């Protein structure tokens, strides 16, 4: 009987210590990452943006023969907060090598509201999404696999990832408008709306206005400011 009690006591102490250590790790992560991973406000904001976006563009989507939108990936569709936690635990800063290794793990989660919006948009016949991201083009297969696991990949998705340092988002948007280079087989496209987490994800065009056909997501974890 005493042996059983000792084992129970040991087990309870082990569980308590594990829970304490785990909670400490969560508490110790930076506030920006904690806000993304733990706050109800972040989840609500993202879901609200996607909800309002659909209400704003659905009329044009439904009246178009081929509605096309451009979406950034990271912190717009895919949630990479786990990578930020990894960096913090290792006392490291962002580096392209560690970032690419993270992408190759295919473990990114979904930004709240992203899946519902994408599945809703894709119900429209001929609706297409162009994913225009600064992920390295060498990680395309890993990116596709990750999205497939999350249930948001479609056969007609178009991916324009970064080939080299000169391959800016501005240049890739030009390819979309002109239907040349990587977009040659698709032809020129008219874009209904843009989605991103940084101003560089959006064109400098007066036709596109935030809250109408430009939709920006909160990302306190990294950026240029």
Features:
225 residues; alpha/beta; Rossmann fold; five-stranded parallel β-sheet
Report on this structure.
It is a single chain. The chain starts with a helix and ends in a 9-residue tail after the last strand. The model is unreliable at 10-25 (pLDDT under 50). The chain is α/β, with parallel strands linked by helices. It has helices at residues 2-28, 31-38, 40-63, 81-89, 96-105, 114-121, 140-150, 169-178; strands spanning 68-71, 78-79, 109-110, 128-136, 158-162, 193-196, 214-216. The strands form 2 sheets. Strands 5-4-1-6-7 form a 5-stranded parallel beta sheet, sandwiched between helices. It is 48% helix and 13% strand. The chain is globular and about 50 Å long. The chain has a single domain (43-216), classed as HAD superfamily/HAD-like (Rossmann fold, 3-Layer(aba) Sandwich), CATH 3.40.50.
């Amino acid at each position: 009987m005493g042996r059983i009690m000792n084992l129970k006591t040991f087990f309870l102490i082990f569980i308590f210590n594990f829970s304490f250590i785990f909670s400490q790790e969560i508490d110790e992560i930076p506030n920006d990452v904690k806000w993304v991973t733990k706050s109800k406000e972040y989840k609500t904001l993202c879901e609200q943006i996607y909800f309002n976006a659909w209400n704003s563009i659905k009329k044009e989507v439904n009246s178009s023969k081929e509605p096309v939108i451009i979406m950034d990936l990271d912190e717009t569709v895919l949630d990479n907060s786990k990578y930020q936690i990894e960096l913090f635990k290792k006392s490291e800063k962002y580096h392209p090598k560690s970032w690419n290794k993270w992408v190759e793990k295919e473990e990114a989660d979904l930004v709240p509201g992203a899946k519902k919006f994408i599945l809703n948009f894709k119900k429209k016949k001929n609706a297409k999404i162009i994913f225009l991201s600064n992920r390295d083009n060498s990680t395309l297969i890993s990116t596709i696999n990750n999205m497939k696991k999350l249930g948001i990949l479609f056969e007609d998705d178009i991916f324009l990832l970064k080939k080299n340092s000169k391959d800016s988002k501005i240049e890739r948007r030009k390819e979309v408008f002109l239907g040349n280079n990587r977009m040659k087989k698709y032809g020129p496209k008219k874009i209904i709306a843009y989605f991103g987490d940084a101003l560089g994800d959006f064109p400098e065009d007066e036709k596109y206005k935030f809250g109408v056909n430009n939709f920006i997501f909160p990302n306190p974890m990294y950026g240029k400011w």
